[in-house]
Design a protein that fits this description.
- It is a single chain.
- The protein is α+β, with helices and mostly antiparallel strands.
- About 20% of the residues lie in helices and about 35% in strands.
- It has helices at about 1-15, 180-200; strands at about 20-25, 35, 45-50, 60, 70-75, 80-90, 100-105, 110-115, 130-140, 145-150, 165-170.
- The strands form three sheets. A five-stranded antiparallel β-sheet has the order 2-5-10-7-8, with no helix packed on it. It has a four-stranded antiparallel β-sheet with strand order 1-11-6-9, with no helix packed on it. A two-stranded antiparallel sheet has the order 3-4.
- The longest helix is centred in the last third of the chain and has 22 residues, at about 180-200.
- The chain starts with a helix and ends with a helix.
- About 30% of the residues are buried.
- Mean pLDDT is about 85; it is low at about 5-20 and about 180-185.
Length: about 200
């Protein structure tokens, strides 16, 4: 019996720790309550929630383009350190202008980290081919920061509304991919079944 309970505890521990380090997430199904615009605009921004063009849920888009950030996480700034950021990106046109970065204020000193272009030192990792792509990046923040996102106003052929984001998640340790989590859960259940069968 003790071994059986220990196995259950191990399975629950593995499954719970897979997501225990997520400190911020948003799937944009409940509005934009976790975000704000620039302090200089009184929090106004161009971010909008739109029906996903390819999936039966909602996503983040922008009704206008911007620079130096459009929306920022409104929670207290995250502490300097090492983080992993995961998100989905859909670019509907060439150079659609999606930019993701961190900012010390709203805005303040900031760094663009990943984008469809290279403005302000961003790494051009985001693909804009009309399909969703999932990304997970590790980064080092040298200062307390807010996440910031925009549809960049200087993007080549892009226009407002063609840069969509979804399923944003900020973690302090590397996320365990969903298939790996399910595999661990399955192995745990098989172990429990084996223990139960052996007892009989």
């Amino acid at each position: 019996m003790k071994r059986y309970l220990m196995s259950i505890a191990i399975v629950l521990f593995i499954c719970s720790t897979s997501y225990a380090t997520t400190i911020f997430s948003d799937d944009f199904e409940s509005g934009l309550s976790q975000w704000t615009g620039k302090a200089s605009t009184g929090g106004l921004h161009n971010a909008i929630i739109v029906p996903d063009y390819l999936e039966p849920d909602n996503a983040l888009a922008f009704s206008g383009t911007n620079a130096a950030g459009d929306i920022f996480t409104s929670v207290d700034a995250f502490s300097a350190g090492t983080y992993w950021l995961s998100f989905d990106y859909l670019g509907l046109s060439q150079d659609s202008g999606g930019y993701v970065g961190i900012s010390a204020g709203l805005p303040g000193s900031h760094d663009w980290l990943w984008a469809t272009g290279t403005v302000s030192g961003a790494s051009p990792d985001l693909i804009d081919d009309g399909t969703w792509h999932s990304y997970t990046f590790q980064f080092e923040a040298g200062y307390d920061f807010h996440l910031m996102i925009e549809d960049y106003r200087g993007a080549g052929l892009g226009s407002p509304g063609d840069a969509l984001f979804d399923n944003i998640s900020l973690s302090t340790t590397e996320p365990v991919p969903e298939p790996a989590t399910m595999m661990l859960f399955g192995i745990g259940l098989l172990g429990l079944a084996g223990i139960g069968r052996r007892k009989k």
